[in-house]
UniProtKB/TrEMBL annotation:
<dbReference type="Pfam" id="PF21259">
    <property type="entry name" value="Rgg_C"/>
</dbReference>
<dbReference type="InterPro" id="IPR010057">
    <property type="entry name" value="Transcription_activator_Rgg_C"/>
</dbReference>
<protein>
    <submittedName>
        <fullName>Helix-turn-helix transcriptional regulator</fullName>
    </submittedName>
</protein>
<dbReference type="Pfam" id="PF01381">
    <property type="entry name" value="HTH_3"/>
</dbReference>
<dbReference type="InterPro" id="IPR010982">
    <property type="entry name" value="Lambda_DNA-bd_dom_sf"/>
</dbReference>
<dbReference type="InterPro" id="IPR053163">
    <property type="entry name" value="HTH-type_regulator_Rgg"/>
</dbReference>
<dbReference type="InterPro" id="IPR011990">
    <property type="entry name" value="TPR-like_helical_dom_sf"/>
</dbReference>
<dbReference type="GO" id="GO:0003677">
    <property type="term" value="F:DNA binding"/>
</dbReference>
<feature type="domain" description="HTH cro/C1-type">
    <location>
        <begin position="12"/>
        <end position="65"/>
    </location>
</feature>
<dbReference type="InterPro" id="IPR001387">
    <property type="entry name" value="Cro/C1-type_HTH"/>
</dbReference>
């Protein structure tokens, strides 16, 4: 049998040894040492229940195990694809997308649906970036049909959704944005970090107001504002500022004078970060926010920045 790190048994043995447990110590009271030895050599299978107990015995989590296991899994797939969700810049995005596509095609040859989902997602996301969505409606339809067919989303569905949100039905965006707020409040286990969930929420808010659904966008902002005020998110300064900006945008689109004052407050914070704290990575956001407010504000309302 294969002794590569792509086997469950070999990965567990590596994790057990890393944590300083001998075979007998890890197995005691759960399985026999002989059985565990056979499992680690890929000569026997094991139930999820007993495997979970073995992880607890050596003080390891499922995530610890997955960091050792490098074979086919949704977690491994998402880790590969996140390279071009988190780390790309304008110059290397296409190269990273191609690398992700190659990884999927090589590793998931026995899963045609998964291959198609990921390849279509890459094409769809590129189409959104290039503003060529009309040419890829068949791919968007396939992805949306898949997402609609799954009631309880797992890591894969949330990941796909985050790339094609702009082309999803309004009903899906509304429901999933509210669900993301619920996940954020409850801290339910997910591959998505709080910051990733917040990006999905902000993206959903932007989608709604761009489609003139101001009432729904405002309601979601209020729900999000309540969730983000939780003590565990007090250090999420950028996200708190972004929420203030979106609140200002909604009010400006409603031609409410208070929105202009809130926008002015946001600009003051942007400039404080830039000048006093020397935080420059928000410059693009600041410029886009200023341009949007200037374009959409009611010029009949007296206002000075």
């Amino acid at each position: 049998m294969s002794q590569s790190i792509t086997s469950y048994g070999t990965a567990f043995r590596k994790l057990r040894q890393q944590r300083g447990y001998k075979l007998k110590e890890a197995a005691e009271g759960i399985v026999s040492p002989q059985f565990l030895s056979r499992f680690e050599r890929d000569l026997a299978g094991i139930s999820i229940d007993k495997f979970g107990r073995l992880l607890v015995r050596i003080g390891a989590s499922w995530n610890d195990f997955l960091r050792c296991y490098k074979g086919d899994s949704i977690t491994q797939l998402i880790s590969t694809l996140e390279d071009f969700n988190e780390l790309y810049d304008a110059r290397d995005f296409y190269q990273l997308a191609q690398s992700a596509r190659n990884a999927v095609n090589q590793s998931y040859t026995d899963h045609n649906l998964l291959q198609r989902l990921i390849n279509d997602m890459i094409d769809a996301h590129l189409a959104i970036l290039n503003q060529q969505t009309d040419q890829y409606q068949n791919k968007f339809s396939f992805l949306n049909n898949y997402l609609s067919s799954v009631d309880t989303w797992g890591d894969l569905e949330w990941f796909l959704y985050s790339f094609i949100l702009d082309e999803c039905p309004v009903s899906m965006v509304t429901f999933r944005t509210r669900q993301a707020i619920t996940l954020l409040s409850a801290c339910e286990p997910s591959c998505m970090t709080p910051k990733a969930l917040m990006r999905v929420i902000f993206h959903g808010i932007r989608f709604l107001y761009q489609n003139s659904l101001l009432d729904e966008a405002e309601a979601i902002i209020k729900a999000f504002d309540k969730a983000i005020k939780c003590a565990k998110y007090t250090t999420y300064i950028n996200e708190h500022l972004a929420l203030k900006c979106y609140s200002a945008i909604i009010m400006v689109l409603r031609h409410q004078p208070e929105g202009l004052e809130l926008a002015k407050s946001c600009m003051t914070l942007f400039e404080l970060f830039e000048t006093d704290l020397e935080i420059s990575h928000l410059n693009l956001s600041k410029n886009r926010f200023f341009t949007f407010i200037e374009k959409h504000r009611d010029k009949s309302i007296p206002f000075e920045w």
